[in-house]
Specification:
The complex is a heterodimer of chains A (89) and B (394). Chain A has 89 residues and is an all-alpha fold. Helices cover 45% and strands 2% of the residues of chain A. The N and C termini of chain A lie far apart (48 Å). In chain B, 15% of the residues lie in helices and 28% in strands. The relative contact order of chain B is 0.10. Chain B is built from 7 helices and 26 strands. Chain B is globular. Classes of the chains: A mainly alpha (89), B alpha+beta (394). Chains A and B meet through helix 2 and strand 1 of A and strand 4 and helix 2 of B.
Chain lengths: 89, 394
Amino acid sequence: NPTLKDSPPESIIEAATYLARYGYSSSSPTEDKSGALVSLSSNLEEFQRFAGLKVTGVLDEATIEKMREPRCGVKDKLGPSYRARRRKR
Amino acid sequence: YALQGSRWRTKTLRYKIMSWPSNLLDNKDGVRDVILESFKAWSDVSGLSFEEVGTGSKSNIEIRFASGDHGDGDAFDGPGGTLAHAFFPIYGGDAHFDDSENWKVDPRKRGGIDMFTVAAHEFGHSLGLSHSDVNEALMAPFYKPPSLDRDVIKEDDIKAIQELYGPPAADAAPAPRPRQPSSPGDRQDPDPILCQDSAVDAMLTIDVNGQKRTYVFKGDHYWRLTSSGVEKGYPRLIREMWGGLPDNLDAILPYEEADRIYFFKGSQYWRMTGLKLDPGYPKPISAGFPGIPDNLDAAFKWRANGKMYFFKGSQYWRFDSELETTGRPGVSDKYPQPISIWKGIPNNIDSVLIYENKRTYFFKGDSYYRFNDAAFSVDASYPRSTAEYWFGCT
């Protein structure tokens, strides 16, 4: 099975930035013993599920393409960090 | 759908536009209209109403076009990527649009980002809605190419907004009567023909010199309506003013994209372009509209999907300008279908009117029915009296 390590590094950085920006992760990706980027992988799955993509946990072309679509800047997942950052006008 | 968790306590919300898109500074009216339409997309399907106020007035929602870091800790990223963001009610409700985008207010224009689609989505956040994982919903986070008919609010969105603010009040948008004629001299006593028998042959709303005009056709006469009844100086004779159209029309179908109007009677139809009758007409309905029957009751182009529908007796037909199977104009073999599919609409209707491109009204005898395009059924508290609401009869 392909792992995230098979993806070009710039794509991984792009995906990690995207996932953090839109509420899927709050930390940097970490590797497990096999070299898979664990937190990114599970966050990717979450994003793929939300976006209606095939859920693989792998940074495939369809996922990268979806991440490059124009979109709304509001986070898809509103975690505690979102609530902490937002202030009333 | 997903709700963020906060909502407005009032159902009448005020908004103001604090700054404008750089590429549309010469078309502020166009921007203003699109913003209004975007709010209206929500007020059409909920108990909310919206009002624009001046920049010096108090408002619930502030709208800004800004680029890069604009002071809220969430900098925009230039063309593409993030297009806009908005704050949920508990955070103030404001909506910010990335001024680096090539905004457009006309969905027919190629390229650019459709302001209506993005604004309607952002205002969903301003009202308390989070992103939906239903792909076709307006509240899905990804930008979709603009819809010409502005039919962006889907069932998922309606359920979400109605959970927060309930459905539209039955009387939220009654038929056009509140505005009075501009001067007392324009007022006319109730029309004796229409008030005695308010059944019509056909009705038509079209744009004439930039103004929306609504006409009623009945027998050999026609009337122009005001917002409170019938305009002074009517009825007039169809044959004198409509350049050769016959009396006793069956149906009228305006096709505004092409500036055309089709008139149907018996087995024939006439075509007008730019309000002038085209030469070579009448033609057989079977020639111009293959698959559509003669002696129609009514016809209209539905704003929900841009398709043409024809009604006769207890059945209806959908006419496609390009059938998937043949690539030619015609009617799919799925039709005719029973009118009962249009929940609440009776058989043997007289006319259908898309009033000011906003709502679909069906007329039969002395009654009319307001059809809710989103719910696909007649609104509660209908039918109502055509004479009273449309012709100003007392």
